[in-house]
Structures are given as structure tokens and as C-alpha cells.
Amino acid sequence: MQANNERAVKGKLGEDFTADYLIKNGYDIITRNYRKPCGEIDIVASKGDILVFVEVKTRRYRSLVSGVEAVGYKKKGRIIATADCFLAEYGEEKQIRYDIAEVTVSTGDAVRVIDFRYFKDAFDTTGYETQF
């Protein structure tokens, strides 16, 4: 139980840090943790005529797999399917972009962000069937 709680705390820290980064860079946060049966999107944001679906991967320092590497084919498919649900529900008429935020946090009692990398247009819908 404690491991799940620690993971949730680190995940929330990573998502909060990413949301702050987006706001500081002129994005509006539309929603966070958008969930549907097909999956979840950590952050949905917009800037101008672009709608951005952001996957946040929070990792401990010295993790063997980077956040970007952790978003594989199946995860991308779930994100795209969930984005399709969002678009059907809210009817946003904007350009779509899929980004990945990679947040590295310290280990130990005082968990804090020690590295942050943001990948714009990290993947697209090529090779996936989409509704739109």
C-alpha cells in the first residue's frame, strides 16, 4: 500500500510541475486526468489554435527507462483513443498535438523535481485508427 501511495505522490508532483510549466508558457489547462474506459490523459491544454494532449511520465532518479521510452505503442493508442473521446465530447476545432513531459524526481523523504524535459509533438496518429 505504501508503494502505491509513494507512486501517487510522485505522479501528482510530476503532473503539478508540468501544469505549472504549461501555464508559465502561455497554455490554458482545460482539464487534468481526463478518464474514459479506453484510457486517461494526464493534461489537456490549449494555446492559440492548438489543442495539446500531454502524457506526464514521472521517474525516479536513475530509472532505467526514460519517460519517453515508457510511452510505447499500446500507451500511445490508448492516449489517441481517449483524445478521440475528448474531441467527440467537447467538439474542439483545433490542431491536435501529442506531447510528453518527462519529470525526474529525487528519492528519499524530501521528494522534489530534479530534472524536467518537455517533448512537443512527441508522437502522432500514424499507424493508429482514429475516429477523426
TrEMBL record:
Gene3D superfamilies, alphabetized: 3.40.1350.10
Entry-linked InterPro entries: Restrct_endonuc-II-like (IPR011335), tRNA_endonuc-like_dom_sf (IPR011856), UPF0102_YraN-like (IPR003509)
Alphabetized GO MF terms: nucleic acid binding
Domain of life: Bacteria
Family recorded in the similarity comment: Belongs to the UPF0102 family.
PANTHER family: UPF0102 PROTEIN YRAN
Protein name: UPF0102 protein EUBSIR_01795
Source species of the chain: [Eubacterium] siraeum DSM 15702
